[in-house]
Amino acid sequence: MTATERRASFSLASIFALRMLGLFLVLPVFALEAARLPGGDDPARVGLAMGIYGLTQGFLQIPFGLASDWWGRKPVIIAGLMLFALGSFVAAWAPDLHWLIVGRSIQGAGAISAAVTAFLADTTRDEVRTKAMALVGGSIALMFALSLVVAPWLAGHIGLHGLFALTGALALAGIAAVLWWVPPEPRIHASAARGSVLEVLQVPALLRLNFGVFVLHAVQLAMWVALPALLVAAGLEKSRHWEVYLLAVLASFLVMGMTLFPLEKRGYLRAVFLGAVGLIFLVQVGLLFTVSSSAVPGLGWLATLLVLFFCGFNVLEASQPSLASRVAPAPARGAALGVYNTLQSLGFFAGGAMGGWITKHHGPQGLFMVCGGLMLLWLVVAWPMTAPGRTARGAVANPDVQGRPAS
């Protein structure tokens, strides 16, 4: 990476990290703490307060992505972080569950994922973009692991309102990073032609990636409806679950660094991508076997499955947005990543709803069977993919986009 690419990668990854840390800190304690507020005796409304963030974010990813194509990445990112901070402070003040729902919905309105990802794509070359995207994905995974460790301790000292206030402060720190650390954005928006969502929806490669990111995050969230109970059944106390998660995340980073980047450089990105999808499918099969067996699940076996899951998940988290940014028409890159992130957010929402309903009516066996079926379907849909190549000028050459390699 060049100095500018490193600066862009680390600064934009830090914005994601600050924002996601604020979100993840709330999740482990949200349901219990929200139930103490006036109106919190209704589990359905507590669930709405938790999930409405993903819903409003999903609706606004495309408008924010389009806006970043038209008016530039930095102004849109700053506006989104301001909305996220506002929603956080409303939630911190909320005297009852109604206002907590309002605050969470405003948080979700700060849908900056597409603009940040497009900015990163604007400032990195094709050959290093997957590595840059991996920094973003890695920062998110680390924040998730960190939140599992510190959230219960923080909630005991500052409560749910304090956690939301801290989330708002982290968003303001993200604005400072945009203003003083993120490099100037390229002059791509001053005179470039403007893309459209319709243009994005006509690219087969992007449609496959959009389907994939929906499935990936639906399966990720649905899995966690049943996984904590399996770890408890294996003899691991809830207070120690973070140890397994952290070990799995760190081990997966090591595996990803040893496989994804070297193999992509050698031209094996398609094989690595499909292998990661297949690996998560096998994890679902392993979990289905575990819950179908009459024996008590072994902690070592579950930890192994979690390591394998995060190996596949982190490879896909790094490679999918990189591929989306490379096959998208340049004038519509923000719109393309807006659609991509919309499907990601809707995947979270669907995974939570689907996971809870299936587990309630069909048990964990039904849950992992459906998750395995979704991963197998994704493997079939993704199989025709062609990894984008690079011409001597660095332009993307991809039959899925152009019909033939660029000359």
What labels would you give this structure?
two-stranded antiparallel ribbon, single chain, 80% helix, 13 helices, globular, 407 residues, 2 strands, mainly alpha
Amino-to-carboxy terminus distance: 26 Å
Q: How much helical structure, as a percent, in the residues?
A: over 70%
Secondary structure: number of strands: 2
Spatially, the strands of the biggest sheet line up as 1-2
Q: What portion of residues belong to β-strands?
A: under 5%
Structural class: mainly alpha
What is the number of helical segments per DSSP (H or I, 4+ residues)?
13
Q: pLDDT average, as an integer?
A: 80
Can you give a write-up of this model?
With about 400 residues, the chain is mainly alpha-helical. It has 13 helices and two strands. The chain has helices at about 5-35, 45-70, 75-95, 95-110, 115-120, 125-180, 195-200, 205-235, 240-265, 270-290, 300-325, 335-380, 400, and strands at about 390, 395. A hairpin with a 5-residue loop joins β1 (about 390) and β2 (about 395). It is globular and about 55 Å long.
Summarize the structure.
Helix content is 80%, strand content 1%. It is an all-alpha fold and 407 residues long.
Fold blueprint:
Layout: H1 3-34, H2 43-71, H3 73-93, H4 97-109, H5 113-122, H6 126-180, H7 197-200, H8 204-233, H9 241-265, H10 269-292, H11 299-327, H12 333-382, E1 389-390, E2 396-397, H13 399-402
Helix pairs in contact: 1-2, 1-5, 1-6, 2-3, 2-4, 2-5, 2-12, 3-4, 3-5, 3-6, 5-12, 6-9, 6-11, 8-11, 8-12, 9-11, 10-11, 10-12
